[in-house]
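Record pair follows.
FIRST:
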Amino acid sequence: MRICCWNVKGASARSRVWELFDEISPDLALLQEVGGVPVFIGDKYQFVMRQASGNRFHTAVLTRGSIGQPIQLSSRWDWVNREIELFHGNLVAHSVSVLGHEYRVLSVYSPAWPVDAERLRGVDVEPVKLKLNPKVWVTELLWAALLNRDTADAAPWVVGGDLNASETFDYMWRGGPRGNREILDRMSDLGFVECLRQSQGKLVPTFRNPRDGKVIHQMDHLFVSGSLATKLTCCATGEHASVFDAKLSDHLPIVADFSEAGTGAV
């Protein structure tokens, strides 16, 4: 099975992004900043997408299999549940069936701005916020929701997207780290494997800075849990020339391949 995670930078149905997407040919895709999906992709994939909060673009899940019921994300904190509802279009979660297996799939777009502090005035956010960051971001809502998931569920989770979080921010940020590494550690503590790091053994940048063109930040992440994590055979990004030089997006796609149980096929 092949999974693709990609921020397509507002790609419309006419964008050349979809030609490269078709070449990648994933069985399951978690996309962010989607403007529209062309007919030839819709003919091959079932998909669901929702408009991200405060934006015109959408967060999406596509599969060659079938899209099942939406997954109701919730946490033990009422204020988190209210924020999850407000960010309904940033956290798109569905049951998905593909290649004879069931998965819980969550496509994430965590914007570069935090949860409105006015809505959190008087609320005890300490159990949820990062230790090194004074604000609450969608990444913390994500963590709180996954903390509440049914770990006995036999269906593995696939969680991925543009988290707007990179370890490189921690050592470049004036004033010291701001919790980016903590976001990744929290996911690991929940039993998730970060596919790109697992496969490559190091941070692999996925984003090109628009100001200076440097490619040093891994802002995009693909996590899997349970039995699926043991079947990861390889994970890499798309090529710079195919994406950055072609001006398709300022984010590279993450492409992960998994062996099929009992067949050894990818």
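SECOND:
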Amino acid sequence: MMFMRFLQFKLNPDFLSEFEKFYENDVLPQLQKIPGCLFAGLINSKPEENEFASLTFWENQEQAEDYERSGVFESLVNKARPFLSESSEWKIHLSDKMELEYAPVAEEPTIKKYSVADKGSEKIDGQIPEMYIRIVSIKIQPGKLNQFKELYHNKVIPTLKSTPGCRHIFLTQSIQEEDEFISLTIWNSKRDADAYEASGKFAELNEQLRETFSQFYLWKMQLEKDYSAKVKTSEDMKVGKYNLVAGKSFL
């Protein structure tokens, strides 16, 4: 089963362009050599200019984990450390003069792993500079996982495939938490993704899927309806928007 790896990290704002070159010249060539890696892309979150993620698709989970165990991943992370943002957390360490000091530490990258539960295309092709990525994360009621997948296959994918500018569609399911899903769509441009939202199609699809959403999220939606006010919860639907900074298909 196809597998998605999502590596999130923050960069030092002073080294954004240098890191992009590092990703293109070091990371992409290394990943292209790894068996099973189908696509790799560096994506930048908006509006936070220093929040990035490395998005990779694999033939299966075993090959992605072989890559982690091989030492190549650790080597690339170590090379990337000089570009990473310093954490707001300060830790004690021993200085070169053998004195105890407090100093900020680099933000550690966060890895999230997902199996691809459904997809609207067989592969990610092309290297379009304007390519835009939209990530919607949502929690589903444990007893309605299959119903959600079926609705996504029958309702969401056909709608998105007929939407101008929508290039690829993937439904992914978290390996760590089976009730957590991500709907990932790749667009020709930000303009196309914004037009999709403005058209009302996104709201219509949410309405068709809402009976499968977590009970906590449904409760929040009812509160908002009853009191005409926004309510924030830990299980809110999250919509992330990213520009593709660098990417390559290895197919």
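COMMENT: The beta strands are 3-10, 37-45, 51-58, 86-94, 100-106, 110-119, 132-139, 166-174, 180-187, 238-249.
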